[in-house]
Write a structure and sequence with these properties.
Blueprint (H helix, E strand, L loop, with lengths): L4 E8 L2 E9 L3 E5 L1 E4 L6 H13 L3 E10 L2 E8 L3 H4 L2 E6 L4 E9 H5 L10 H4 L1
Parallel strand pairs: 1-6
Antiparallel strand pairs: 1-2, 1-4, 2-3, 2-8, 5-6, 7-8
């Protein structure tokens, strides 16, 4: 069985709420936040669970944008307004000892200033 990854983008005007990751080949890249889809779980349920479990945020208006290189990408609104007031959030996972950095980046950070948004092709479709 093939694993599916589901990710969800939240937009506020021209800003995108994204996860910062370090790619061994490309360096720092950004992607919508999400996780692997578990067996017997829909991709939409996976992104809802990722936001709820990690940030305590419920999603509304969840709409699928498409599939990019095997990644199902959704767009949604956050029900908790505090998320829109943050510039960035660092989340610590005590089980793995890893941290996740989530931040609002302006669309121009990708279009003019060279930051990379993954999966490839997503920015062109926004």
């Amino acid at each position: 069985m093939t694993e599916t990854t589901a990710r969800c983008l939240i937009r506020e005007l021209d800003e995108l709420f994204v996860e910062e990751v370090v790619d061994p080949d490309e360096g720092r890249v950004y992607r919508p936040f999400g996780r692997e889809v578990e067996p017997d779980e829909s991709p939409e349920a996976a992104v809802r669970a990722a936001f709820r479990e990690t940030l305590g945020v419920d999603l509304s208006w969840v709409t699928e944008l498409g599939e990019y290189d095997g990644v199902r990408v959704f767009e949604a609104s956050a029900d908790q307004n505090w998320l829109y007031d943050e510039t960035g959030i660092t989340v610590y996972d005590p089980e793995t000892g890893e941290t996740t950095r989530l931040a609002w980046l302006h669309r121009e950070d990708f279009e003019k200033y060279g930051e990379t948004l993954r999966p490839e092709g997503l920015l062109a479709d926004l």
